[in-house]
Amino acid sequence: MMMAEQTVAERTITLEVFRYRPEQESEPTFQTYEIPYREDWVVLDALNYIKDSVDGSLTYRWSCRMGVCGSCGMMVNGVPKLTCSTFLKDYYPRPIRIEPLANFPVARDLAIVLDDFMAKLVHVRPWIIRRQEEPLEAGEYRQTPEELDRYKHFSMCINCMLCYAACPIYGLEPEFVGPAAVALAQRYNLDSRDQGGRERMGILSTHEGIWACTLVGECTTVCPAEVDPAAAIQQAKLASALGWLRRVLVPWGNK
Amino acid sequence: MRAYSRPTEFNWWLTNRTYFFFVVRELTSVLIAAYMVFLLVLLRRLAAGPEAYAAYLRFLGSPGMLLFHLVALAAALYHSITWFRLAPMAITLRVRGRRVPGATVVAANYAAWLVVSLVVAWIVLRS
User: Which residues between 128 and 167 in chain A have a beta carbon less than 8 angstroms from any beta carbon of chain B?
Assistant: First the structure.
């Protein structure tokens, strides 16, 4: 028993970690760490091991370590992943290269600057808009399970930004409002309690809005919450095109 | 704070299978556009008279042009097949409160494509 445990403890895995320390270097470097390999460890466990036992200067974001908070997104061998649900055993014995999420500026090591995403999120007005708020005594806005079903999967977004790191359009055209923001806008457009669809469409139906998207589809592939942002953008395009047709062809359609 | 920016590399579309096949689908449009140019020239030759038309048909029958048309056909098929496969993303139909499955939407698109192709083939080949 002792022997077996020792053999297991001796197995190691190599992590090549992106380092950027703005106060001491102008270009990023890769630092290699050889750390113990455990079959039940995820990439985030390995980073925590480095931070606790090898190199306390390594900087990265994490919080819930169970795929809910959306803070620990990084590039793992070039693919955007939540590091809390990416197991070492899927890569072992090959080395793992860890980089900050692509398409975002790097603040330090594996931590990105997320101001642009935050601004875009607010820009699409992702909240219930009413022409006139009902008084409190009128009660709650009621909704049937079918009405909830229309938008529910778009509401599961955890704002992890993996879809932005996967989107080559966002990389090439940083003005693009991006997958998660459109998915959230669409979540409210499809909500039976909302009346802000027209206002939101004015923001979405622009080049920087939905029309920059050329449907690469990788946002949906990497999404850890099964939101399907690519579908949200295509549905918004269809709604926008039909709205335009109605305005052009039907004189009384512009109500 | 001095943030470090990493611009997208020129070869971004070679780094991932999905990116590569996406760019292939976009590039098929170039072949389809080239095919349209030859088709438009064909119409002009037809208007110029029977001799011009026959000469152009001989040109189109040359091995190089046959090869081009085969490649353009393959490109058009690849584009159409992958395009219709994406239809369920944009089209969400509901029948009696339930969402119509994506496979049904794709099948309906393929069926409509087949019917239109058969009608066009019938018009072209009936003489």
Answer: 146, 149
CA distance A173 to A176: 6
Q: Is residue B40 part of a domain?
A: yes
- CATH code assigned at B75: 1.20.1300.10
> Are the Cβ atoms of B18 and A221 closer than 8 angstroms?
yes
Q: Model confidence over A208-242: pLDDT tens digits?
A: 999 999 999 999 999 999 999 999 999 999 999 99
Which residues from chain A sit within 8 angstroms of residue B99, using beta carbons? 149
Touching check for A105 and chain B: CB below 8 Å?
yes
The answer to the question of residue B49 being in a domain is yes
CA distance A97 to A116: 26
Q: Assess A237–B contact: CB distance below 8 Å, yes or no.
A: yes
Q: Which of B2, B13, B18 sits opposite A217 (nearest CB)?
A: B18
ipTM, interface predicted TM-score of the complex: 0.84
Look at the alpha carbons of A186, A187, A190, A192 in this order and tell me if their dihedral is positive or negative: negative
- String of b and e for A154-170 (b: at least 16 CB within 10 Å)? bbebbbbbbbbbbbbbb
Contact (CB, 8 A) for A51 and A4: no
Which of A105, A171, A238 is opposite residue B12, by nearest beta carbon? A171
Asked if residues B16 and A102 have their Cβ atoms less than 8 Å apart, the reply is no
pTM of the model: 0.90
Class of CATH domain A115-254: mainly alpha
Compare CB distances from A20 to B4, B7, B99 and report the shortest one's residue.
Answer: B4
Homologous superfamily, domain A2-112 = Beta-grasp domain (3.10.20.30)
Domain of B79, in residue numbers: 12-90
Banded model confidence at residue B92, pLDDT cuts 50, 70, 90: confident
Query: Do residues A105 and B3 touch, judged by C-beta distance below 8 A?
Result: yes
Tokens of A88: 């070492």
